[in-house]
Amino acid sequence: MSDSRGEAAEFDLGSLYAAREGERYALHTRYLNGQMVKVLKTLGYDAGFRRAQGPYLFDRNDERYLDLLSGWGVFALGRNHRGVRDALVSVLDGEMANLVQLEVSPLAGILAERLIARVPYLDKVFFANSGAESVEAAIKFARAATGRTRILHCDHSFHGLTFGALSLTADQNFRSGFGPLLPGCAEVPFDDLPALERALASREIAAFIVEPIQGKGVNLPSDGYLAAAAALCRKHGTLFVADEIQTGLGRTGKFLAVEHWGVEPDMVLLAKSLSGGQVPVGAVLARGWILDKTFNRMDRAVVHGSTFGKNDLAMAAGLATLDAIDREGLVQNAARQGERILTAFRDMAERYELVSAVRGKGLMIGIEFGAPRSLKLKAAWAMLESMSTGMFCQMVAVPLFKDHKILTQVAGHASRTIKLLPPLVVSDEDVDWTIRAFDEVIAEAHRVPGAVWSLGKTLAGHALRRETA
């Protein structure tokens, strides 16, 4: 594009965004995923968010929302954290020699050093671009290190949607239509030590990969499960791999969730919040001998990698994130604020018959709904469940969004659990807002007939039409 003098006009992203922002849904329908746009409009989530700061989103009318989803856990520091932004600007202003490939980055070395300092029983780090890439790398490293090919995962697991990671993801809604998947992958029940031992006894298993707290449902293990599982893996020559992509970096009130149970895995997988919400990054922290078995000769120095895996922007974002976690006391804040929410939700479980369970650690929290006892509620619940399993959660999530300006979502396909993944920077005021909103919406859900149940019928009708279309 040229100006009136024939000179090239400077690219102005702000003006471009402002001019085209109103077309966001039309553009996505035409060029990206139109079904996602339909979902947003059906549920009323088409608010048109235009800016964000910390734990807050601001819509097209500049109304403020509390984000309890934090981009599926990416924005642990909140959005547009100043320290992360400054670090990224310093990389760009420094005109660093990024991604030379026939060279190594000092920033990657420093970030690896600082991660290992927090997980001192591990020795080396491999950097990727996402959680799914970290899972893919762990599969390859486990096979190279053990000489075995089979990988175990748990039911209800979620490890990603790339081909290998999907092969370790239990949800058939994600797997359907993409098979056959990676051979040699098998599922065992979560929190079932006898089943795990039977599978390991073949001595063919390269790795057992497990989420310390499962994201799909916020399922916690029994107190002794993870430690015993790690011991069984050692006994049978299998690597114990903790997928901390969602639970790590302070989310559960510890730097790693496995710290709650005193477990030391052979590999730890990180991603999501390590990026500071700005530049994608993933990491595999491993015992030194595992990576040494993979990169075991000079001609195998590049046997696994990624073009953008150690880019300076991602490494700077990771360093700034670790600094903010320490300087702002975010692990401690997650533990404190999470306990406040869990205590309030457990009180609601005592008062409201539709609340069947409350689970979580730190700021990874699930509130599960179940069949009520009273006659009117039981009939309404049964009717809704017959139309669409798990629809009740949307009856809670939608009024939370529309009436209370709180963004959250269900913990999985056809789930009866709403999951909270607030930014670790949430304040006392934010937690009060959360508790008050949930209490009011759940109280309203106990009134039959009522607005919540009318909404449920409408949403269930949409779901049935989609299934029969």
UniProtKB/TrEMBL annotation:
A GO MF label: pyridoxal phosphate binding
One of the Pfam families matching this protein, by short name: Aminotran_3
Cofactors demanded by this protein: pyridoxal 5'-phosphate
Protein name (record): Ornithine--oxo-acid transaminase
Lineage: Bacteria, Pseudomonadati, Pseudomonadota, Alphaproteobacteria, Hyphomicrobiales
Family indicated by similarity: Belongs to the class-III pyridoxal-phosphate-dependent aminotransferase family.
InterPro entries documented for this protein: Aminotrans_3 (IPR005814), Aminotrans_3_PPA_site (IPR049704), Class-III_PLP-dep_AT (IPR050103), PyrdxlP-dep_Trfase (IPR015424), PyrdxlP-dep_Trfase_major (IPR015421), PyrdxlP-dep_Trfase_small (IPR015422)
Keywords for the protein's UniProt record, in alphabetical order: Amino-acid biosynthesis, Aminotransferase, Arginine biosynthesis, Pyridoxal phosphate, Transferase
One GO biological process term: L-arginine biosynthetic process
Mitochondrion keyword on record: no
Species of the source: Enterovirga rhinocerotis
Superkingdom as given in the UniProt entry: Bacteria
